[in-house]
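Hi V.,

Quick status before I head out on leave. The structure for the redesign project is tokenized and pasted below; the design run finished overnight.
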């Protein structure tokens, strides 16, 4: 979970990328078998069995016991953990390789602060940025929209109380990485300031005034050429991240932010997060709707998990929501593991190019799934609108949401 998840709303082709194994920081192993008389899966903790039986029917368990087992296992080890996570670290080649080695010696707080002072701006940010609106608040700090007095632009400022952070070393690592990141389709990190003696870190980010793609998806109807435009811009960002050795792992409409000029930028891969705090759809926190099957079934996975998520996000733009949105998280996990590629209700109404694009994204066999660079040359993206064609939808969504407040 990224920094944005610390705050509650007031009132959300590097071919060398290694594969990531399933979480390994637990020691419990289960020998699971099926009772021939009762049909129950035996060897699982009783709470798991009760949960599974309450949300996955006996017929479904009989039809696909592996999917039921993987779903309940993933839910208990990953989804529940994610709900309580306060920090979402980068997934890079380096961190992947470190997982199989002994834990590195932790830096002391004193060492971390020496390095933070070296890489943070030493000026007082309060002389440059005038905070204008508080948009999120939590135990760890506050998120503001601020005016940049030097160039009269708006920025997002996150004030982080360092004394409350147990992962200061990860914060240090992310600042170092993000200082080298700049791409037109990423919500870019602008600067960081360490305020002493307040013991605060100020992180300054780009501000996207059009809001998340979620608003456009849920409040307007998008045309295919607009869908192609969003997919293309998102894939530019994903291709850049993959070339840097970074897997996003959380592509969805909540994490694609829009400008009032129609610009499209990916967020939530580190500091770059939705400044409105929690995600727009509260029901989605910690939920698996965009997850690739290989993640749910706890197989090794790599950068192509992002491609699957692009396909699911395209379905969002077509149908207004991802598959299984109204299922419980556990049941959604089961359906992803059991069904693989989801059904698309309006399939017959889609153009052949969009159908083929979805086919390339939603291949269950990872080797058959396209890469970001392959999709960028797909015919579906050759006939996309310009980003300015998104502006009417952005304005319409804002109008509807203002009316509903």
């Amino acid at each position: 979970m990224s920094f944005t998840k610390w705050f509650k709303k007031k009132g959300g082709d590097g071919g060398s990328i290694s594969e990531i194994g399933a979480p390994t920081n637990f020691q419990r192993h289960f020998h699971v078998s099926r009772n021939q008389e009762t049909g129950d899966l035996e060897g699982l903790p009783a709470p798991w069995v009760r949960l599974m039986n309450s949300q996955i029917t006996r017929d479904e368990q009989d039809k696909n016991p592996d999917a039921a087992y993987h779903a309940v296992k993933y839910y208990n080890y990953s989804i529940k953990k994610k709900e309580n996570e306060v920090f979402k670290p980068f997934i890079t080649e380096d961190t992947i390789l470190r997982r199989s080695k002994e834990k590195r010696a932790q830096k002391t707080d004193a060492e971390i602060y020496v390095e933070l002072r070296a890489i943070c701006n030493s000026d007082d940010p309060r002389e440059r940025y005038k905070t204008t609106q508080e948009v999120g608040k939590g135990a760890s700090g506050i998120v503001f929209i601020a005016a940049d007095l030097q160039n009269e632009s708006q920025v997002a400022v996150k004030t982080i109380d360092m004394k409350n952070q147990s992962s200061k070393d990860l914060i240090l690592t992310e600042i170092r990485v993000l200082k080298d990141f700049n791409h037109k389709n990423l919500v870019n990190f602008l600067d960081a300031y360490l305020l002493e003696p307040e013991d605060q870190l100020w992180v300054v980010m780009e501000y996207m005034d059009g809001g998340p793609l979620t608003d456009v998806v849920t409040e307007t109807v998008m045309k295919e050429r607009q869908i192609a435009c969003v997919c293309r811009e998102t894939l530019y960002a994903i291709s850049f991240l993959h070339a840097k050795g970074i897997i996003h792992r959380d592509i969805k409409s909540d994490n694609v932010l829009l400008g009032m000029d129609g610009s499209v930028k990916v967020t939530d891969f580190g500091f770059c997060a939705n400044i409105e705090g929690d995600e727009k759809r509260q029901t989605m926190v910690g939920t698996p709707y965009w997850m690739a099957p290989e993640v749910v079934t706890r197989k090794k996975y790599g950068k192509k998990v992002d491609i699957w998520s692009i396909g699911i996000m395209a379905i969002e733009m077509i149908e207004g929501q991802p598959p299984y949105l109204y299922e419980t998280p556990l049941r959604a996990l089961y359906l992803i593991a059991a069904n693989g590629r989801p059904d698309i209700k309006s399939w017959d109404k889609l153009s052949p190019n969009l159908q083929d694009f979805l086919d390339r994204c939603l291949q269950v066999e990872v080797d058959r799934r396209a890469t970001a660079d392959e999709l960028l040359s797909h015919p579906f993206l050759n006939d996309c609108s310009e980003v300015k064609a998104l502006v009417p939808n952005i304005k319409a969504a804002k109008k509807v949401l203002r009316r509903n407040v």
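Above is the designed sequence. The chain has 15 helices and ten strands.

G. will cover questions while I'm gone.

Best,
W.
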